[in-house]
Amino acid sequence: MALRYGADAVYLAGRKFGMRASAANFSDEELRKAVAYAHERGSKVYVTCNTLPREDEIKELPEYMESLQDAGVDALIIADVGVLEMAKKYAPNVKRHVSTQFGVINSAAANALYNMGADTVVLARETPLEDIKKIRQNTPEELRLESFVHGAMCVSFSGRCLLSNYLTGRDANRGQCAQPCRWKYHLVEEKRPGEYFEITEDGGTYILNSRDMRMIEHIPELMDAGICSFKIEGRMKSAYYTAVVTNAYRHAIDDAINGKPLDRIWLEETEKLSHRPYCTGFYFGDPGQNYAEAGYFQTADVVAVVKECDDRGEAVLTQRNKFSAGDSLELLVPLGRPVPFTAENIRNTEDKPIEDTRHAMMEFKMKLPCYSPKGSIVRKCR
Length: 382
What we know:
This protein is of the alpha/beta class.
């Protein structure tokens, strides 16, 4: 979905050294297929090697890095100086990207990493826009600067957090974060165990729960500051989320390159996917009250994904949520604008008319307003 909807590169993890240990992640064979798929479409694959490996894990890195190079990955995303040095030795043909977890917020660090062989530095999310301009002025042109523009933010500096370690025994710096910053907290007085005192009037607080970042309205400013590539936080997200946010930023970036103002429809698209309340992070200084309630928000739900479609818009789809004939829907095609339409002529796979799509993951047929390639999304706005 990321590639279909306009990503120049995707970042993902293999089965080792990635920061999402609970995800299935890519086997060696799946990784090879992913790299081939991306390269056929002119896009790149960056593999996360961004945990902080312990001493007994270091011995596994040489073989792993050699296998990644053999698979044809374009870059490794790294958060440890030792791993950076080992990558130069065991995967010399693979570019080296320094992870945001390294916490780079100044040109001195960026230059040091460049001298150590880094091709790209992903700046810390805490770096103000004015500092990014100065970092760009004081670093070699060959060093690419990358920054996050959308997605979840960690309450700790550059993701270097120990809350999960202390509260659950799961190491956040080795891909096992339990996200205790998203929990609801009360106060407990030491002589009154079991008595929970409300921190706010409506009970508890999510004081550690950061808002999500959204910088789609500020793409030209980031480009002017010298950012070479924009990164969307997407690990553990759905295919729908990936498609919609990639599509929105693809259009916003292309419009900015062509000197066009942001079309508000792309801002609206970011509301139609699951998110916490938005903010602009630390780009413009102190973000102020940056915590949010635990819930996610979105203004649309996926009801179907296109499996195949002919030139007349006659499509075979797979159901994701129930909808009925007469419902107002939207069609989102790769690299296209959303197209509103009314659900009509819904049929089962035997071409018999049906009133709704009531069965989970059922295949069905329906006339769409235009040709829609595989992976196009049908959704219903709330």
